[in-house]
Prior knowledge:
The structure is a homodimer. By secondary structure, the first copy, chain A, is of the alpha/beta class. Chain A has two domains: about 10-190, NAD(P)-binding Rossmann-like Domain (Rossmann fold); about 225-320, N-(1-d-carboxylethyl)-l-norvaline Dehydrogenase, domain 2. In chain A, about 45% of the residues lie in helices and about 10% in strands. The first copy, chain A, is built from twelve helices and eight strands. Chain A has helices at about 15-30, 40-60, 95-110, 125-130, 165-175, 190-210, 215-225, 230-235, 235-240, 245-255, 265-275, 290-320; strands spanning about 10-15, 30-35, 75, 90, 115-120, 140-145, 155-160, 180-185. An eight-stranded mixed sheet of chain A has the order 3-2-1-4-5-6-7-8, with helices on both faces. In chain A, helix 4 links the parallel strand 5 (about 115-120) and strand 6 (about 140-145). In chain A, helix 1 packs across helix 2 (about 40-60). The relative contact order of chain A is 0.09. Chains A and B meet through strand 8, helix 6, helix 7, helix 8 and helix 9 of A and strand 8, helix 6, helix 7, helix 8 and helix 9 of B. Chains A, B: Pfam families: 3HCDH (PF00725), 3HCDH_N (PF02737).
Amino acid sequence: MGERGIGNCIGVVGLGLMGSSIIVSFLRAGYRVIALTPLLEELEIGTIRIREQLDLCAKMGLLPEKVDFFFDRYEVTADYGLLQQCGLVVECVIEIETIKKQVYELVEDHVFENTVIATNTSAIPISNLQKYLKYPQRFMGIHWAEPAYATRFLEITCGAATSVIIAEMIRDEAENWGKEPTLLYKDIRGFITNRLMYAVYREGFALINKGCISMAGLDKCFQHDMGAWVTLMGIFRRMDFMGLQDYLKTYHHLFPKLSNRQDVPQQMEEILEKGGRGIHNLTGLYPHTEDSVRKLEQDFSNFNEEIYHLSDRYRKKLNDLNL
Amino acid sequence: MGERGIGNCIGVVGLGLMGSSIIVSFLRAGYRVIALTPLLEELEIGTIRIREQLDLCAKMGLLPEKVDFFFDRYEVTADYGLLQQCGLVVECVIEIETIKKQVYELVEDHVFENTVIATNTSAIPISNLQKYLKYPQRFMGIHWAEPAYATRFLEITCGAATSVIIAEMIRDEAENWGKEPTLLYKDIRGFITNRLMYAVYREGFALINKGCISMAGLDKCFQHDMGAWVTLMGIFRRMDFMGLQDYLKTYHHLFPKLSNRQDVPQQMEEILEKGGRGIHNLTGLYPHTEDSVRKLEQDFSNFNEEIYHLSDRYRKKLNDLNL
């Protein structure tokens, strides 16, 4: 390994939407990338996807060089042998355990013993996948948000057999990826943000189903209350900001009232039973039309760009406060 | 009442920070305001506070007219008789039930039977306070976020005896206040966002106390994951956006694992026992210094202004989608 701990070359296996946007985030950060697809039919479409995402990234003003500069800094290939030069290999293939197992075997056959291997899974526990590794201590989860090149979020998750030292090295390295990496020392289901969000869903559905508020009303509340501060300070720093003294009383009277239900909310079950895929097949919790979906997607793309730049202006200052 | 349902004049009782920023939000929206303080010593400081907040509001570009224009559109007084001209009176006094009771009695002695009376309480159930009213059907909670003139959040809460028709009229009226009002049909403890946030705190503390992640790490996750979309779409529209299909499986395996604890997290209890008031006495969940607090407050003031304008550019489009 070079000075950077993982050297200057990173391998990414799997060139779906997520894989290609992860590749672009590494290119943006100055790495060379071996873009490997085990699917021959993905070689061509993968190349196109990376170009498209590079263009999007450039359009947002996030590339330190012109797009052309990056064209010879990645190689799209089906040859696992090229991974040998990589200090880190990130697996982004389909969420099927047997396929991931095959990928790890092939990767381990071709890389050095100290090459770090990571999975982008959000569905399978890291400790389960880790069992397929010959050298499991160098294996961990690295979980991006979409689009990977224009989001700060990054969860690095240790499996039961992961070396914490190696995971901390990757976390420190990830600071150079334009990320705000966080390290999960234990491989908990759902990682962090999913756990927190499901706690919100549970309480949210309970309030809706008690007739306290409509779904659109609840969304509005959260958008305009939490939305006004969470990007700046998270939830616990917000408590300090508000002064703490009212929380204890509220804890005492509110905690016993929160929903502890374990069953799936009925309206979710019904929508999913009829094959609901939200905006993707116009069947979801809200009514959607092709037109409204197009607008929402465009809005999100624009909003994401704006909030990314907005949070960037504050995060450096806030990181100083974290010391 | 005039065409607007509550006429053009609103009374606000209590000129603390919150009261004065609520007054400014009404002035901004074009109402005349009777700013009433039951505390003689607050008459002068209340006037100064309103001026200061008008200036801040103007600085953000939120006033439709020059500051001077508003100077004769409000009257600071200790005379409850002036409330007679108000179609709505909002109580913002200290969170002590006996004091609020006195205020309601005085207000009801001076206003018409159909004048709407609201409380800004976040601590006392609306149904409890409602008992002190002669005409309880016209009483409800209206809950702002600070600073009231530069936030969209507004929860309108029915008590057990509130007329839903009157509450809906106030909700519709509040659309003209530059707000995104939501109506809670039932008077639940903590209202909506507090309930949702305490569900997050419960799970968050559980994860921290299990050694999964640090507090700063958890905040970072939430800031950069949720922060990247919540202002745009809330939580349930986000589910539709992501496509729903993965949620059912996650529900099944995650719900049984979420924390159901009812006790106050130990670190909260410890800090509060030693009188911790977060940034206000430099004793909180995070370390703070006078310098870091000054920076955080300045950052929040700037951030709030930016996110307010940012969300404004999207909310109109999104409201169209809500139809």
